Amino acid sequence: MVNTPSSTSDSEIAIIGTGPAGLMAAFELAKAGHPVTLYEKRPGPGRKLLIAGSSGLNITFDAASLEFAASYRESSPQFSRILETFSPSDWIAFIERMGIRTFKGTSRRYFVEGMKASILLKTWVDQLLAMGVRIEYQQECVGFEVTSGGVLLQLQKENVLASRSFKAVCFCLGGGSWEPKETPLRWPSLFKNQGIEFEEFVSSNVGFKVDWPAALLKEAEGLPLKNIVLQSAKGARSGDAVITSYGIEGTPVYFAGVLGNVNLDLKPDLTESQMLQKLENVRENLSPMRRVKKVLQLSPAALALVFHLTPKGEQADARLLVQRIKKFPLLLTERQPLAEAISSSGGISWNEVDLSVERFLMLRRFPGVFLAGEMLNWDAPTGGFLIQGSVSSGHVAARSLSLFVKNSG
Ligand SMILES: Cc1cc2nc3c(=O)[nH]c(=O)nc-3n(C[C@H](O)[C@H](O)[C@H](O)COP(=O)(O)OP(=O)(O)OC[C@H]3O[C@@H](n4cnc5c(N)ncnc54)[C@H](O)[C@@H]3O)c2cc1C
Q1: Residue 280's CB: how many other CB atoms inside 10 A?
Q2: Cβ contacts of residue 149 below 8 Å, gap of 6+?
Q3: Which pLDDT score, from 0 to 100, does residue 181 have?
């Protein structure tokens, strides 16, 4: 490793990470007139945003402020304040001002036109460059310390290590999910080594393993369980799930999935007695299972579940069959790993973060060091809450950082 002498940067502020949180923080600080440099360890910006875009970029959700903040579960008090300063409609207006159209889809989710992230990312980065923000790629931040002059960063590019000094820094390093196995995440040790409380990352918004019999998979792998409700100790959530080779995934699973026993309501729009009535109304002399197939309009995947996982004795009894369709038992044996998860729970503890108005999102014990985005210990369901939480916290951290720099002269 080659060490270069430490130097004061031309920029007074460094932002580390070019995800939605970092890009939003850079915008807000440049708009307030601060010289800003963005550092990114990868060769280009916004890797996870681009990945999110590959499955239809869902930017936010249509919900009243209380319901929206409640989606951040234990972190909802912090997010009530964050979203008050930069709300879902502020975020939509921000995107539209860049000339990118947005629309509300069927399940209250907002998307960018075309549903891809690449145009949004390119336009956003171009706008930052036009505002004078410097962006340096392949620069990994591997250390920081607070000095009398501000914050000293160690930045590594290939095998050259440089130290640069800034008045303040905003770390926007992201969560623990979807990281390639060959390059495991290194930033948590940067903070843990300084004694900062860190909750280990656990996969979130992820599928679960189920031991499917081969005959079921042969018939139903990849098929959707349309409009079901998954009920667990964590709550109940309706939507579409998918039977996969390893188990089950989809919105109801991400939201209400827990290790152990859960129940599926495979026909939420009918009560047990309504279903029984329909089965009894069939004139032909058919078995209860064939009646189910004929009149209940279950999706092929739901029918396969009922057929392959219901004991034959129960299949012959219409009442038991109907009870099972309303409360289909499923054992979720394992959470899919972090590398396959949409997000992570865990990160830097809120106990470490100043929540006062002037220093909101600054590390209490490291004046001038601010945090934003998924690296903080919060989690939320998919549906646009993750990107919204990242941009809103980036915006808020940038505001208090700007105040901090102005007040410290
Ligand atoms: C498959 C998938 C689909 C998703 N779909 C959606 C969706 O539709 N809607 C939604 O709301 N959310 C979605 N998400 C989640 C969303 O992408 C993230 O919540 C969001 O990108 C987090 O933003 P962030 O800025 O906090 O972190 P990130 O976007 O992860 O950015 C962090 C950046 O920091 C850089 N970095 C890390 N360490 C260092 C270091 N030491 N030095 C320099 N740079 C560093 C990283 O390379 C990265 O570019 C999805 C995620 C995945 C994986």
Answers
A1: 9
A2: 8, 165
A3: 84
Which ligand 1 atom is nearest residue 142's CA? 41
Instruction: Report the distance separating Cα 169 and Cα 12, nearest Å.
Output: 9
Q: Is the CB of 52 under 6 A from ligand 1?
A: yes
Average pLDDT of adjacent 10-residue blocks, the chain of 409 residues: 71 95 98 97 97 91 94 96 97 97 92 92 98 97 95 95 96 96 92 97 96 97 97 94 97 94 97 96 92 96 96 93 97 96 97 95 98 97 95 98 92
Neighbours of 60 (CB within 10 A): 28
Amino acid 257: pLDDT = 95
CB 183 within 8 A of CB 271: no
CB 100 near ligand 1, within 6 Å: no
Rounded to 5°, the CA angle 51-55-57 comes to 80
Burial of 258 (0-12, 13-18, 19+ CB in 10 A): middle
Give, to the nearest 10 degrees, the angle between helix 118-130 and helix 20-31: 30
pTM (predicted TM-score): 0.92
Question: Which atom of ligand 1 is least distant from the CA of 388?
Answer: 11
**Tokens standing for residue 176:** 């623990």
Write the pLDDT tens digit of every residue in 5-52: 677 666 799 999 999 999 999 999 999 999 999 999 999 999 999 999
Please report the domains of the chain, with CATH numbers, ordered by start residue.
2-203+341-407 (3.50.50.60), 208-335 (no CATH)
Ligand 1 centre from 309 Cα, in Å?
39
Q: Which amino acid is at 273?
A: S
Q: What is the dihedral of CA 383, 386, 387, 392, to 10 degrees?
A: 120
Helix then strand then coil, % of the chain, to nearest 5? 35, 25, 35
